[in-house]
Design brief:
The complex is a heterodimer. Chain A is of the alpha+beta class. Helix content of chain A is about 25%, strand content about 40%. Chain B has a five-stranded parallel sheet with strand order 2-5-8-1-9. Chain B has a two-stranded antiparallel sheet with strand order 3-4. Classes of the chains: A alpha+beta, B alpha/beta.
């Protein structure tokens, strides 16, 4: 582009100088007969001729399905009453034949007072610049677009490189492939780079596009990231992209040679997604396990409580006082035991014991014991 | 003289059904010039018993309901200004009586309790600059309610020591309660007549002091009290950590007197070991202080006393 546009700039220059009421304008085209998708530099110059007014311009190309465009430069001599503006566009015609490039221009006329007021107004009460707008119908620029050679997929000066990390993989293991097309020309975006399915499955994502447009043309880098997956070994056929370079007027090919991938078979069990796979259809008996464990704990607790109660009962049944009375060997021992209890119902037994101990009366110990034991019951 | 005691008991039975232990305790207190602390739930004929006793003895009886806002002057009396002749006169409080029922003594703050307990010990009251001796007999029967713990001022151990005995009053048996119900419903309680006068009571008190007690039993009493202070010495290692403080010398004196009175009430002229055994729990249960460990184990002072009596050999 650097050479081509520079060489033919003046050769193919069509210069239009037209006169409007308040300004002059001209349209320059570096290549009025481009190929389809070949960059054409269009420059529009506007020059104020009526110096009594303040002129502003609102200019752009109109959008169309027949071409795409990008403004790549603007030069302004922004002086009141003597505006000179130059707009430069890179236009890509999208079809062969006559392509009309249309313009949109609005002339905005205002006064010095209006400009001054719009700048000096209070910040809380700013008034916009008051202009008198006039739509100017500029004649469209007709490009005589030449058709591309048959089968052309890209237009420009491109190179291709690709990256395949491995040609060996296990079944259904993704094989990443990256293809990158770099160069100057119409952005090399392809709808179909690889067949979607053959004896493999292709996974793609949107191509990563990096484009920079200048007056020298558009420099592009487009990266296609893909992954292939297959159950068995397969061959990726040769990939051929037909490109036409308008500057050399020659076609050439970008090629990714045939690639053979060796797929190692894999056990079916290993193919299972052990992280996100649904649970196996097995009847879940864990609730029963939990229930039984709770039941065991409950029964253990219940039995423990019962055993505690039994133990208590057994202890109560022991009745140490009875044992003490039964084990008393002498009247005095029995008296001591009964006195210590502070129980009124032992009074008669105590009296009998004292009678035996401190008088001549002799009541058998066994009899008193029996009486005392009966009182306890 | 035992005839008089039987008459007195019979007269009291007209108004009080059951509660023999409380009546006996009161009589022991009366005969020994001691004061009685009664612990029991309301409605167990404590006031009735005091009133019946006063009527049967022809003595004066008064009742003070202890409350948190009670002041010492409310019970001992105060000096009152007379604007007519610009003089001060003494207004004696309800303490000036023979039999005093101090109801719910632990509801009053410490200053009122102290005022009463000091009077119980000194048997004299000082109002302004004048000191009054209380007439004999002077018996205080104080009550405590064991079921309420909120808003009560527990009696300190040192003050409790001034009570000769602490009686635990329990509910009557079902038969007794049936009889009480019928009597109260039919208003069939008969009036109590005086069967003793003060002079005769003095004579009875004198008789009690004459009851013989063997020196061996005297030593036994001292040993029982001493055992409360040093359980280990008497071979009670297993409960040696259960007591914080043992009984004071007042306990020995009161046990000695109470045993004599008990023997007298039984119509005996001498004290036998059973007389000591009958009163020892009442005399000691409020005088020994259980340790934290014992209280944590849920032990009661009666269990320690039982252990001591069981362990120490009877003479």
């Amino acid at each position: 582009m650097k050479h081509s546009l520079g060489k033919i700039l003046f050769l193919c220059l069509h210069l239009f100088w037209l006169q409007a009421s308040d300004f002059d304008y001209s349209i320059q085209v570096d290549n009025p007969q481009p190929y389809a998708k070949e960059a054409t530099l269009v420059t529009v110059n506007l020059k104020q001729t009526n110096h009594d007014i303040v002129l502003l311009f609102d200019f752009d190309l109109l959008k169309s399905d027949e071409y795409t465009f990008q403004r790549v430069d603007i030069k302004e001599l922004d002086a009141y009453h003597a505006v000179e503006i130059s707009y430069t566009y890179l236009v890509y015609p999208l079809k062969a034949g006559k392509v009309d490039v249309s313009f949109s221009l609005t002339q905005k006329a205002t006064t010095d007072e209006s400009v001054a007021y719009s700048f000096s107004g209070d910040r809380d009460n700013v008034k916009g610049l008051v202009t008198t707008n006039t739509h100017i119908d500029l004649p469209s620029l007709t490009l005589d677009v030449k058709p591309l050679p048959s089968g052309t997929e890209l237009v420009g000066d491109f190179t291709l490189d690709y990256q395949i990390n491995s040609h060996d993989a296990e079944a259904f293991e993704p094989l990443p492939i990256q293809i990158r097309i770099k160069g100057k020309g119409y952005p090399p975006l392809l709808k179909k780079l690889l067949p979607k399915e053959g004896n493999f499955t292709r996974f793609t994502e949107s191509p990563l596009v990096s484009s920079t447009s200048t007056t020298q043309g558009t420099i592009n880098t487009v990266t296609y990231a893909m992954a292939l997956s297959a159950p068995k070994s397969f061959t990726l056929p040769t990939l051929v992209i037909k490109v036409f370079n308008p500057l050399t007027q020659k076609s050439y090919e970008l090629v990714v040679p045939k690639q053979t991938f060796k797929i190692h078979p894999l056990e079916r069990s290993k193919l299972l997604d052990k992280v996100d796979n649904p649970a196996a259809f097995i009847f879940d008996w864990s609730w029963l396990e939990t229930f039984l464990s709770y039941l065991v704990v409950f029964v253990a607790g219940y039995l423990f409580a019962l055993s505690w109660k039994w133990q208590k009962k057994t202890k109560q049944k022991k009745e140490p006082l009875k044992e003490k009375i039964q084990h008393a060997k002498t009247h005095k021992q029995l008296l001591q035991i009964l006195l210590s209890q502070d129980k009124k119902y032992f009074t008669s037994s105590i009296q009998k014991l004292e009678s035996t101990l401190y008088t001549e009366e002799n009541i058998p110990l066994k009899q008193i014991k029996k009486e005392a034991l009966e009182k306890i019951q | 003289m035992n005839h008089k005691i039987n008459l007195l008991k019979k007269e009291l039975k007209k108004a009080v059904i059951g509660q023999d232990a409380m009546i006996e305790g009161l009589l022991i207190g009366l005969l020994c010039d001691g004061h009685i602390l009664v612990e029991g739930v309301p409605g167990l004929a404590k006031t009735t018993t005091i009133n019946a006793l006063s009527q049967a003895l022809g003595l004066d009886a008064k009742r003070i309901q202890f409350t948190p806002d009670l002041l010492p002057s409310d019970i001992i009396g105060a000096q009152i200004y007379n604007p007519k002749d610009h003089s001060f006169s003494i207004k004696k409080g309800p303490l000036f009586t023979h039999l005093l029922l101090a109801d719910e003594i632990n509801r009053a703050p410490a200053k009122v309790q102290s005022a009463l307990l000091e009077v119980m010990q000194e048997r004299q009251v000082t109002i302004a600059e004048e000191t009054f001796k209380l007439e004999n007999p002077f018996l205080v029967m104080a009550t405590q309610n064991p079921i309420e713990q909120e808003g009560v001022y527990a009696l300190p151990e040192a003050q409790l020591d001034r009570f000769m005995m602490k009686l635990i009053v329990k509910h009557n048996t079902e038969d007794e309660e049936l009889e009480i119900m019928r009597h109260v419903a039919n208003k069939s309680f008969t009036d109590i007549k005086p069967v003793l006068n003060i002079q005769e009571l003095y004579t009875l008190q004198e008789e009690v002091t004459k009851v013989h007690i063997d020196p061996e039993l005297e030593k036994y009493i001292v040993q029982l009290i001493s055992a409360t202070r040093n359980l280990e010495k008497f071979g009670m290692e297993e409960v040696k950590h259960c007591l914080m403080f043992g009984a004071s010398p007042r306990a020995s004196i009161d046990l000695y007197k109470a045993a004599k009175a008990k023997a007298f009430l039984e119509g005996k002229t001498f004290v036998s070991p059973s007389d000591i055994g009958y009163v020892i729990h009442n005399v000691l249960r409020h005088r020994i202080v259980l340790s934290y460990e014992a209280r944590a184990k849920g032990m009661r002072s009666d269990e320690i006393i039982t252990k001591i009596v069981e362990t120490l050999a009877i003479p």
